[in-house]
Amino acid sequence: MTFRVTVLGSSSAMPTLKRNPSAHALNVHEQFFLIDCGEGTQTRLLRCGISPLRLGVVFLTHLHGDHVYGLFGLMSTLGLLGRRTPLKIFAPRPFDRILASHLSFFDSKLPYEVQWEEIDTRAHRLLYENKTLEVWSIPLRHRVPAAGFLFREKTPPLNIRKEAVGLYGLGIAQCRAAKRGEDVLLDDGTVVPNAELTYVPYRRRSYAYLSDTLYSPRAAELVRGVDLLYHEATFADPDKAMARKTGHSTAAQAAKAALKAGAGKLLIGHFSSRYPDVEVLVNEARNIFPATEAVVEGESYDIRPVMYGAQEQAAQDSAE
């Protein structure tokens, strides 16, 4: 039931000796997703013990170099490693032209297919889903078309209430039907509603990545209730004029977004190189949203499941 974010890069446009350009790796149930791919991402993946071959899908927020320069070396490395499965990349236009140019000059004979899918940065849409996860685009406000992402776990498979098995004398086939969400027909013709037989074992989890962007009430609203919010905090409040000019947020604005979103926890990053010590940014954000941390490169942040027992689920059902 893993739901873990590993931070690979936390700098804005200019890297420093301690911070690298933007990239996060997300592990959901041992499926790996890459969010942005700044220069040097493949090296940092290896340092964090994440094999590049495990990456299934790449999501690019926008086409500024500090978010994409690392992708092309990574693609070449995947070819050298013998990847055969397709690599899907979600990105705004004109990524198709950039990709075609790279492939024609450097990687014309990759052993795997690169599949690009366009992100409409003006729309809030479901981009991707599988059995356990859905990924939504979040329109952002930057100098170029940009979108953030909401990664939301699907409701987990139902568990059988143990007391219901004995109470109704359920057999294996009836238990399987109940776990599929069906009402169950007993031998005497009674139909038992599914809610009396099953419960959701844990609350589904979510992670949002909002970078690069000005403060956006709409984006905050679209990720309402998110467990873990990553929001850029390129500047401190005294530099808010520069933030607005360059299409970025201050730490205070990141905290304001977390507050509006009702987030469980805020991670701030995408720090300007003018702040060798980001404590000023952390303190600024915590004055508004106390549950704030500055990301640390190489660190992983787990979103642990809130478990439901049968009794807790029954209480929730009655409350609803």
Overview of this protein structure:
- The chain is of the alpha/beta class.
- About 30% of the residues lie in helices and about 25% in strands.
- It is built from 10 helices and 18 strands.
- The protein has a 7-stranded mixed sheet with strand order 6-5-4-3-2-1-18.
- The radius of gyration is 22 Å and the shape is globular.
- About 40% of the residues are buried.
Distance between the termini: 26 Å
Helical content (DSSP H or I, runs of 4+): 25-40%
Gyration radius, to the nearest Å? Answer: 22 Å
Tell me the series of helices and strands, N- to C-terminal.
EEEHEHEHEEEEEHHEEEEHEHHEHEEH
Describe the biggest sheet? 7 strands, mixed
Q: Specify the number of helices.
A: 10
Number of strands: 18
Uncertain residue ranges: none
Gross geometry: globular
Write down the overall mean pLDDT.
Answer: 94
> Structural class, from helix and strand content?
alpha/beta
Strand portion, in percent?
25-35%
| Strands in their spatial order, largest beta sheet | 6-5-4-3-2-1-18
Function: Zinc phosphodiesterase, which displays some tRNA 3'-processing endonuclease activity. Probably involved in tRNA maturation, by removing a 3'-trailer from precursor tRNA.
Catalytic activity: Endonucleolytic cleavage of RNA, removing extra 3' nucleotides from tRNA precursor, generating 3' termini of tRNAs. A 3'-hydroxy group is left at the tRNA terminus and a 5'-phosphoryl group is left at the trailer molecule
Domain Metallo-beta-lactamase: 203-271
Protein name: Ribonuclease Z
